[in-house]
Amino acid sequence: MWRKKNSSRYTLRLVSYAAHEAEIRAVRHAVFVVEQGVPETIERDGRDASCVHVLAFDSSGAAVGTARMTEDGHVGRMAVLKTHRREGVGRAMLDALVERAWEKGMESVCLNAQLYAVPFYTKAGFTQKSAVFYEASMPHVSMEKTLRHPR
């Protein structure tokens, strides 16, 4: 069973969108809309209520990262504030969602990775499954990770 994860720099929690919408939206707005120029209408796709969400909080309790997974195992909306990148927050959030998928008995998880992030996902065990395509005017590829279950 997935448990809250702690490090000296941040805490991870699986959260409901309804209870943490403001924090989730604030992190995603800062990363996707402000930093990357993604239109707000694309960033908000109406699927959040049915997703599993993870939030990363710094030592003061401020949200510094978020990610989600749809019911069919698609990881997305991975966002870490610029001030907290390269601290392991993104990998910890990804691992938490993959672990949740494994607990639910899913055979794999997938995601659409921006090209610059492919090495990050490859290190986490994902493999590229598509040619380059564009989402929000940015180049992406589809990636997948097979989950091993004991027989």
Q: What secondary-structure arrangement, pairings included, does this model have?
A:
Layout lengths: L4 E2 L3 E6 L1 H19 L4 H4 L8 E7 L4 E7 L4 E7 L8 H15 L4 E7 L3 H6 L3 E2 L4 E3 L2 E9 L5
Parallel strand pairs: 5-6
Antiparallel strand pairs: 1-2, 2-3, 3-4, 4-5, 6-9, 7-9, 8-9
Textual characterization of the structure:
Helix content is 29%, strand content 33%. The chain has helices at 17-35, 40-43, 89-103, 118-123; strands at 5-6, 10-15, 52-58, 63-69, 74-80, 108-114, 127-128, 133-135, 138-146. Strand 5, helix 3 (89-103) and strand 6 (108-114) form a beta-alpha-beta unit. It has 151 residues and is α+β, with helices and mostly antiparallel strands. It has a domain at 5-106: 3-Layer(aba) Sandwich (Aminopeptidase). Strands 1, 2, 3, 4, 5, 6, 7, 8 and 9 form a nine-stranded mixed sheet that branches.
Short overview:
This protein has 151 residues and is of the alpha+beta class. The chain has helices at residues 17-35, 40-43, 89-103, 118-123; strands at 5-6, 10-15, 52-58, 63-69, 74-80, 108-114, 127-128, 133-135, 138-146.
